[in-house]
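Fold it.
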Amino acid sequence: MSKTLSSKDRTLAFLNGRPVNRLPFHPIVMRFAARHAGVKYRDFCLSPEAHVDAVIRTAEDFGMDWVSVMSDPYCEAEAYGLAVDYPEDDLPRNERPLVSTAAELLSVAAPQNLRQVRLLGRVRQVELFRQRAPEQFVVGWVEGPFAMVSLFRGLSEACLDLYDHPDAVWAAVRTAVDFAMRFAEAQIAAGADAIGMGDAVCSQISPEHYRKYFWEGEREIIEHIHACGALAKLHICGNTSQILPDMVATGADIVDVDHLAGSMAPAARLLATNQVLCGSVDPVSVVQNGTPERIQSEARKCQAEAGSRCIISAGCEITPSTPPKNLRALSLACLRA
């Protein structure tokens, strides 16, 4: 296999079960990338140029095989009308949900177009990545259905609504799924090779509620991404051990696995030929605080559990306090796992 294989081609070959000169390296870098590039986090979220500059620099410095628009969960929700505060150099936050009662979920309306500034910014990020990093695997992003319902209503209230107001939840899920498909389509048209979908809060509810309310919406979004000619990545962090089979069954090409889910072996046995796992090294106790030797040992363990069908990554975001030498150690595991 040629040593000049591009990051995009390496990832695509790996997904299709073909030999690669080294394993793909897809760490989630958001706050780490901003700090590494000296970019304020407000700019990382709101300025497409600053975001792209920071992520490309990080990809080049650490041998990453993907670039992503990931920064925060508010891009779509702000377009719905959610009030979001962007501190100069901290994570964005919202002080109140979009609606205060379950009944109001029935009337939540998706944006009529993609002209809101954050939506335009995300599409622009994809365009810039495609122009400036043509050999990279470019990944756009949408929020999953429960992530959106939680932003509409607040997490605690949304969880109670699953019991008390299921019709309102169903209505909000339908709204969120339909808009996510439109937004994914715009990013694919801009040049995204894949669309990631984040639905992390699904690890906070029962497997039964996940399957009843949100799994079908995730699957529908993924099918639409495929129909538009792109690949799909599903990210649900936390302890997903009870729903990993369902996550694989969505048809996502890349299924993220957090260290809290335990061994990847059970999920690996369920993968279709075109599916892989991604993870699941502990981003704090191992990548941030561990030695290079331990980091590489844990990455090799993940590969063994997954039968070598696993993209090298931590189970969730690389922390901004991670020493650069430790992220480089994780990158080197791509050569040795």
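The mean pLDDT is 96.
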